[in-house]
TrEMBL record:
Flavoprotein found in the keyword field: no
Organism: Capitella teleta (Polychaete worm)
TM region positions: 314-338
Ranges for domain SUEL-type lectin: 31-111
Lineage, opening ranks: Eukaryota, Metazoa, Spiralia, Lophotrochozoa, Annelida
Pfam family, one: SUEL_Lectin
Name of this chain's protein: SUEL-type lectin domain-containing protein
GO molecular function, one term: carbohydrate binding
Length: 413
């Protein structure tokens, strides 16, 4: 039931470069990987192995050694750097050689651009590559009542995405005989929770050290690894595809997904956009459905397109003529009001009272032409009449009267 990954998986296509190190007794060596990469122990042996930089002469006792890869991986796996010392007590107690023989550690390790995952707890997986190691089966089963044996790993990604798995085989040798080298060994299971189907994980030496395993149909997968001896491998896992789009809070859009394509449309209009999933991102442009002015714009366009009762030139000239007439009326009314206001504030001519300042004419006796000198002097000494007060209304000037303040006595001869 092994279902191959028929997609273009974003995986490690080239086997990572291998690094070697030899650590002599009473030495300490630091393993170092570039940033953002994880250190993985591929193989490690401890003992009186052979000619090396630690031993120059063969005394006939080469060959005593023990595998300490699991011990070193528990200290260094997933780290960027790690220090190893042959004099470490946990390593020296594994010495398989006679006393007096010089022992050392000979190891190989990889630096992979991935992060380690822990068993027995749900973990979110992203497009960033992650891995689990076959040496993690030493922790035992997470649930003794589980329907499948081994050590369980629970993976989950965002809705709409799937999980893809690949195997990186790290074992350099096999304990099987030559006639069994081409047989597949079952080392675990992959459970696709979406379909509730179980797919075996098989380790085959016929395949390339790096090969795909499975592409899930759901975003939740459980992996179970069985304990193996002398078989070391990594299960690489990462998310692929695009996550489901969520409609906005105003709920003005409709989103329909069909595999790697999504159609986004508006509820209140016929607007529509098509998106395509490329890698883990949607490619395309989404507009705005909240523009409520579209029906108003259509109504304005329809009115402008309707036939007019009169030609546009005649309508324009009529408007200009009415504007000119209205302007002339406004100017004329303003000028008349201005003239009247100027007359009301005292611009009319003043009353001429010079005649009232003259001495009154002397009466004469009928038939007499002479006046006495005293009469003439008295008339000169008489007070001049006081002019009447000015009136505001010019029409009252015709009815003006003159009143003398002092009566004047005239003596006639």
């Amino acid at each position: 039931m092994d279902r191959p990954c028929n997609c273009k998986c974003n995986k490690i296509n080239i086997f990572p470069p291998e690094h070697r190190a030899t650590i002599c007794v009473y030495q300490e060596h630091s393993l170092q990987c570039p940033k953002q990469q994880s250190l993985v122990i591929r193989s490690a042996e401890y003992g009186h192995i052979g000619i090396s930089e630690c031993i120059e002469v063969d005394t006939g006792h080469f060959g005593c050694k023990v595998d300490v890869a699991s011990v070193l991986e528990s200290r260094c796996s997933g780290k960027t750097s790690c220090s190893i010392s042959v004099s470490d007590e946990s390593i020296r107690e594994l010495n398989p050689c006679r006393k007096g023989l010089d022992v050392f550690i000979q190891l190989t390790y990889l630096c992979i651009d991935a992060k380690p995952l822990l068993p027995c707890q749900p973990q979110m997986v992203t497009s960033k590559l992650s891995y689990i190691s076959s040496r993690q089966t030493s922790v035992g089963s997470c649930n003794s009542q589980a329907h499948i044996g081994g050590t369980q790993f629970f993976f989950k990604t965002t809705p709409g995405q799937q999980l893809q798995f690949s195997m990186l085989r790290l074992s350099t040798s096999s304990t099987s005989s030559g006639r069994h080298n081409h047989t597949a060994t079952q080392v675990g299971y992959i459970v696709d929770e979406g379909q509730d189907e179980v797919y075996p994980i098989e380790l085959s030496h016929r395949r390339h050290p790096m090969h795909p395993l499975l592409k899930s149909t759901s975003n939740e997968v459980t992996v179970s690894l069985l304990a193996t001896e002398h078989q070391h491998f990594l299960i690489l896992v990462q998310a692929f595809g695009c996550q489901d789009l969520k409609p906005p809070k105003k709920d003005t859009m409709l989103i329909e997904r069909h595999g790697d394509t999504t159609v986004v449309s508006c509820k209140n209009s016929k607007k529509m956009w098509n998106l395509k999933c490329i890698g883990v991102h949607w490619s395309g442009v989404i507009g705005n459905c909240s523009d409520a002015s579209q029906p108003v714009v259509r109504a304005v366009v329809n009115v402008a397109a309707a036939n007019l009762a009169l030609p546009k030139d005649i309508i324009l000239m009529t408007i200009v003529g009415l504007t000119v007439v209205l302007a002339l009326v406004i100017v004329t009314v303003g000028y008349v009001c201005y003239k009247r206001s100027m007359e009301n504030i005292g611009m009319e001519p003043l009353l001429d009272v010079s005649e009232y300042n003259k001495a009154p004419a002397l009466p004469t006796k009928r038939g007499s032409t002479l006046l006495r000198g005293t009469l003439h002097r008295q008339s000169l000494a008489a007070e001049a009449p006081v002019p009447p007060p000015l009136r505001n209304n010019p029409q009252d000037l015709n009815n003006a009267t003159i009143r003398l303040n002092h009566p004047q006595t005239v003596n006639l001869l």
